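Request from the bench team (R.T.):
"We need a structural guess for the complex before ordering more adenosine-5'-triphosphate. Sequence and SMILES attached. Just send the tokens back."

Command: build protein-adenosine-5'-triphosphate structure.
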Amino acid sequence: MSVVVKAEKVNAGYGRFHIIFDVDVEARRGEILVIVGPNGSGKSTLLKTIFGLTRIYSGRILFEERDITREPPHVRAKLGIAYLPQTGNIFTELSVKENLKMACYGLEASVAEERVREVLEFFPFLWYKLSSKAKTLSGGQRQLLAMAMALIRRPKLLMFDEPTAGLAPKAAKEVVEKILWLREELGKTIIWVEQNARLALEKGDNAILMVSGRVAYRGPARELLADRELGRKYLGVKG
Amino acid sequence: MVNWWIFSDSFLITILAYIVVSISLNLEAGFTGVPNFGKHLFVFLGAFAAQGIGVRIAAWLYQVVNPEAASQALKEVGRLVPGAHWSSIVEAAADTGANRIIVNSYLKPFVVENLAVEIALLFIVLGVTILLAMIFGLLASYAALRLREEYLAILLLSFSELMVMVVFYQTESLNGGNKGLWAITFTHNPIRFALIGSAVLAVLAFIYAERLANSPMGRAMRAVRDDEIAASVFGRDIASIRLKAIIAASVLAALAGFFYTQNNASATAITFNRVIWTFLPWAMIILGGMANNKGAVIGTIVFLIGKRIFEYYQEPIGKLLHIQAELVGSMLPNILIGILILLVLYLRPQGIIPEHMSKTIEFSKLAEEVVGKENAREGSSAQREED
Amino acid sequence: MAILPGITYTLSSLAYAAAIGLLSMGLTLTYLTTRIPNFAHATIGMIGSIVMLLLIDRVFYGSQSWLIYLLGPLAGGVAAAAFSVLMYRAILKPLADRGNSIIGLMIATLAVDIILLNILTLILNVVPGENIPKLIGANIIGFQPKIRVAGVVVDSYTIILPVAALVLATVFHLFLTRTSFGVAMRATIENPDLASAMGVNVNLVYMVSWAFSGFLAGAAGALMAFAFKGVDPAVSALVIVTVFAGSIVGGLTSIYWGLIGGVLVGLAEKLGTTIINNMYRAFLVPSLGLPNISLVNYEKVMSLGLVIIVLLYAPQGLAGVDWESILRRIKRARGGE
Ligand SMILES: Nc1ncnc2c1ncn2[C@@H]1O[C@H](COP(=O)(O)OP(=O)(O)OP(=O)(O)O)[C@@H](O)[C@H]1O
Ligand SMILES: [Mg+2]
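Reply to R.T.: structure attached below.
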């Protein structure tokens, strides 16, 4: 399987705050790469770095073998990377329709219309919400809208930052099912940051454990789940 | 006394006054994070105490001590109407031309030739300076404890512009309005008085600011300035320290304005505008490096000497550039100062002499320091590591 | 003495309020996008005034043509927009990228203000007029087309300015809601990271916001040139206070409320102060023996007073007031009667 995205010895942070150190990551086509780790360990920062929202001090980021280390975020978006932030992943002040319109930003009008129709088929509930402001949606609906917006651009890689955080079990289940469906049906590559380590590690292919801005484990997701010591120490997973 | 190349008494007084104002601004902006964009009002308060207030009180004392001479003075300026009293003297003093000179010729000797009067007046004027500064400082800190920094900056600038450019500049009965008013001066040699007074003030201000900066509280203040979480942790202590720093800074600035006015022996509100007494001090502390008292002093001196050289050679420079010399003296320095500030902000966001303390100091350490324990580790970046 | 001011004064107050509204709207826009309070904003508006002055001196001298009202704001707006973009792109953005704090950036705008103010003054002092002998301090009120309202000849710019403000605000509103770049601008204001995830070039949005802001300021400045007793860039030193007042009253969170806040503060300064002054002199001076002075010089007290009231009682400004619940309460109170 070919490598879709790859970070090589990346050091990055915010301004003067150096947050992640010498991180190597790679995700292959069609896999689900799970990233877990304690609070503040730099998981979100890693995703932001891949998307170009932090300052990269050294190292390289390759997307489909192209060096994108110095590209601004909107260029990475155009290349096929979708990033769904932990918070604020939809525009609450805009209507659902305007949110979808934003997702089509830069696409030709005819293509845009086609794509919107397509994602509305995947997420039929949005039909009834088109003209409401996005802030009136429930937490789960917001996640699904965010996913729909990401899909409009037909990205090759989707990066989810804690998509189930704060959701009721039923809504969380629905979101997880959609993520699996993205991989199964559409063959997308997925990087999935998750607090609920057990849930994600059970579904994922490979995993990375981040501790204090460094990679502490890299390998198959199920092996990390089975590792009692790491699990107890960092993930609150009981053996 | 001093008269060599660009150096003169009045230039030295200017330098000393600016040193005090820079230290005072640094106390607010550098240490406590209060972006005082309205410094010019505080400097003007000292000038106002010597003119608007000082002249009034001197006239009133004159009336009390020497009523005949006072009515003689009123007669000469054509204001001896029935019911005329000491406040008419102020009106006359605010007049342009002859009346002003006449009133001055009565009041000035009256002040400097009676030691008791002079001392009493000096205490009153200094007292008024300090009192006014404290009142306005309290107002500023009331806002400073409640507003976000950009709102605070906007409010302080607007408020000072309102007071200086509208209230003081437009109200003739207050302090001569746009005509200005001469100021009460002290001793037979007010320039020497100003020189010595402002030198003493500058030294005291420096010692005070250094002691505050190196105290545990001073360190805590800097941490708070940089970090909102720290601000909430230390909320109460910080509020009181901020209040103290703002009031001290206000008093220092006003006293500097008082001594500065001794040199000119008169003042008009418009000459205390936001470029001269707010923007220039900001330029100086940015040049010297924020939150650094030595830097503020050095920045001030370097800056003023540079500016003075420019004014001193305005004729040849004007010839060189084919523009009028007055424009060289008034417009070009401002343009260059603006450019200089932008350059410093670009090249050294931390100033020429950077602040030594690192931004993140561990909270527990900081808390220890604040409650007075020894040996705090400086410049720690441990916070991140332990997360 | 009449309490209400006459029609000429009322119209010129409206014009002033409209200009402040446009300036506050632009100030709010760049604050929303880039978080920089721009202390040079009023002086950027003066670029428009000077372009207008030059247009009259070189092109429209003695012609009284209505075309001046189209060309003046356009040329002034474009010139100011160009400066505004340059200021952001060449100065503020590099400074922000180098890690300057918001205070550093505010100082930078003050520095730009001083540079620009002195350059403009220098230009007016040094560049000779072709028809108007001395450009600095030139009074151009007489160079506008004449118009009659209710039988009185009034300054036509006072009619044009409010209309222009409405037109510009409407055009801008349509841009923000009907074009995809406009929606992208609103999206960027709410969440720049997410907007970039949608492929929006956020930096371009920022630059365009500075361009718009400059254009609005320059257009307002061009039309306001007729209101000055003499064109002098130093006017901006006090205008900026009113513009900030308008923006803060509006709340600095919505450009529409910025416009409304600016208009309200402008009206309070002019009409409000005059009405208060007339009442003071008609009632308080004779009955209480208060000093018979004119209060109109103290118009800035009004704007600052409004700011203080807003900051104390509604820190989010008018935009943060829950108008719907207030309306509901009013309706309920009506229904209950
Ligand atoms: N904008 C920022 N500026 C400075 N430091 C930041 C910023 N955002 C995050 N940090 C710091 O970076 C570190 C890592 O944060 P990050 O959000 O990447 O952690 P995380 O692993 O996603 O945690 P969580 O599980 O809580 O989401 C934290 O110490 C945090 O304080
Ligand atoms: Mg996170």
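Two things stood out. The interface with chain B takes residues 16-19, 39-41, 212-213 of chain A (CB under 8 Å). The longest helix of chain A spans residues 169-186.
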